[in-house]
Amino acid sequence: MSVDKALLDKVLQDAGSLFQGLADNELTGLYLIQDGRFVYVNPRLAAMFGYPQEELCGGLGPMHVTAPEHQALAQSEIDRRMQGKAKTGHYRFTGMRKDGSHLDVEVFGVSTLFQDKPAIVGILVDVSERSQAEREVSNQLQFIGRLIDTIPSPVVYKNLEGRYLGCNRAFEEFAGRPRDDLIGRTVFDIATQDVAAKSDAADRRLMSNPGTTSYEGKATQADGSVHDIIFHKATFDNSDGSVGGLVTVMFDISERKRMEERIWQEANYDSLTGLPNRRLFRDRLLEEIKRARRSGRGLALLVVDLDRFKEVNDTLGHELGDKLLTEAATRVRACIRDSDTVARQGGDEFMVILPDIADPAIVGQVAQNIIDALARPVILDGHTVYVSASVGVALFPDDAADMDTLLSYADQAMYAAKEKGRNGFSYFTPSLQERARNRLQLANELRGALAANQLSVYMQPIVDMRDGAIVKAEALLRWRHPVLGMIPPDQFIPIAEEIGLIHEIGDWVFKESALAARRWRDLPVLGGRGIQVSVNKSPRQLVTGNTHEDWIEFLREIDLSAEFVVIEITEGLLMDARTEVASKLLQFRDAGIQVSLDDFGTGYSAMSYLKKFHIDYLKIDKSFVRDMTTDEGDRAIAEAIIVMAHKLGIKVVAEGVETAEQRDLLAAAGCDFGQGYLFARPMPMDDFENFLEDGKGKTVQ
Length: 701
What we know:
Blueprint lengths: L4 H20 L4 E6 L2 E5 L1 H7 L3 H4 L11 H15 L5 E9 L5 E13 L2 E10 L1 H23 L4 E5 L4 E4 L1 H7 L3 H4 L10 H16 L3 E9 L5 E12 L5 E10 L1 H15 L9 H18 L2 E10 L1 H8 L1 H17 L6 E6 L2 E9 L2 H16 L2 E3 L2 E3 L2 E9 L6 H17 L4 E4 L2 H17 L8 E10 L5 E12 L3 E3 L1 H11 L2 H19 L11 E5 L2 H5 L3 H11 L7 E6 H4 L4 H12 L3 E7 L6 H6 L4 E4 L1 H5 L5 H16 L3 E4 L5 H9 L4 E2 L8 E2 H11 L6
Parallel strand pairs: 16-17, 19-21, 21-22, 22-23, 23-24, 24-25, 25-26
Antiparallel strand pairs: 1-2, 1-5, 3-4, 4-5, 6-7, 6-10, 8-9, 9-10, 11-13, 11-16, 12-13, 14-15, 18-19, 18-26, 18-27, 19-20
């Protein structure tokens, strides 16, 4: 069907110049509708729907190019204009091509008269690409919205007036309000006054200087809990580039802060007593020294060490020992000012810093107050416990001008207080430093003493109290220094333990003693009965190392029966709760080596341990023997020990027997063996062997 040129001219004439322009536009579809049919379509519109112009204008109407789901919409819009209810129309619908495919169409229509009858003239624009782009943008925005909504951290948007535009689910939960209730409100409606004021001030600063900002603050959640928050804020722009508002993201760092606090607490405070630990103490001491230098005022450092705490700990158990330390910390803290520092150095040792000291006499009073406080009895789970304390005092800057020296001097003073009898305090003096210097020199020289043949084993006879026969001997270590001469064991044995030489030295002493016992076993003067040698075993040796196994094996190597050796231990070691101590003692017992308990009666004297470890000998400490002839109490104690030991099947050795009267009292009480200057002093091994030969195995009675 051909287009009527005259009709087209008439249409163009009636539509005016605008219609003329549209008709000539190849990018826009042009139409004229009358009586429900297309009267005219331009080539672009025909191509848009895949029809020839002739076919569309040959009786087809708008419904032929409208998808079924939008036909009602299109018909309604056409009716409104055809009936005069609306002059213009603008809407979108889904069009349908001749092949059935769809496209998105935007319609701009105007009601008019054509040949004196109502008609609609307008344009159609294919907006499929734009609609697809819009759908993609919409999908992206929806995805971003869902994504933001799933962020666990609260997110909120505000306009320039500080009113909420929107938020995510996390912010709803934090604020305790649905987002519909939040929109339009400000931070002052949901937060405390101080938090709101800080947030609003930060917002205003950011609005005036667009960009980003972050700060840390507090925020109260809907349940009333206060959280530590990092606020990250950034402005956003409108489409024209102007600032539209800001977005805030809140990161809850409360757990991190608590963790940091715990880590700092654990790093700087003692978990048992709650006092500053060694690390924090050193930091504070250094700061106090700096402050003292600036102010010109002195400070005092006190080292407080509990006396015999280990015995309490071993006897009553570590749990009660911990309670005792906690109570001690409380008592020491009560003796000082708020400006002072008390710290736990470790174990049973405490440190006290007394700054701003004008009168040194005040330091002595504080030290005495601490001693008195710790001397009061402590009730622990029904047990009454008594401890005391030894306190060392060093002054800054009088004694030392730096921290490490001050610590060393206070420590030396504390040991001096212990040596004076404990339960007291001692100031640092230059003589203490001299003693410490000598101790260090001895430690250095002791390392080479064994290789240089400066150490030797002496023997002191132990006699049978019935007939004076020498049946035993105690091996005693001696150090003959090339310059200082004979150094007492109580000076160098603790040093050997401290520097770790006790294992090597103790092993050498045992082997020398065992070899001597092997020789004396065959001495004719002894008639084949030999001499049983007692060898002291340091607590350090029994707690660490495997010398017990080496010693048992060594006896096998030299073919010496275990009955010729006695291991001598202290009472405190017997009460050591560690399993390795019990295990090693029992291994000696199983190998046939007897065990002697030295210095009995000076410690806790727990009877249950005597039975538990099958002790063979008790040695009455010389402190009881010394005064038993003049002190009825000491004599009663010695006699009681003898009776008790015999009831348990244990034999008794009395140490420190120096007079015939002491010997006679002990013999009358039933004491089995005696040791002391009355019988013989300790002597080198060769002299001891000659002593045996000359005395034919007996001492003077």
